[in-house]
Task: structure prediction
Amino acid sequence: MPKKALLEWQYLPPIQYISKFLMYDTVVLEDWENYRKGSYRNRTYIAGSNGVLRLTVPLKKGKNQQQPITEVMISYEEPWQQQHWASIYSAYGNAPYYLFYADELQSLYDTKPDRLVDWNALLLQSVLDLLGIPGSLE
Result:
């Protein structure tokens, strides 16, 4: 019997999340849940030079708490993508292999998907591709 895992959408998830794509035959990403404030759906943590940094994707105002995750919209009123990329560069710019992955990831920060789930899917698929992990998000 094939093994399946059900995962929530996350913004730049940690390696433990990514490892599920290697551990299970099928990984299903939950499209039918409601957005939960304070979750990893729109935030991630990176290791900065002065400690842990939290990066948060700003969302458009509204009742996000009760919205299906597929309806949560991203706000572009602030230049958060440039700020996030600057933080990623500052934290990892001197790391081994950074140059092998930076161009593709940086180009994603120039796109402006409307929905949070589309942004997370774009990043997740790119990370899986860069790491050579087979599979595609549907």
Remarks:
- The mean pLDDT is 92.
- The first helix runs from residue 15 to 23.
- The CA atoms of residues 17 and 130 lie 15 Å apart.
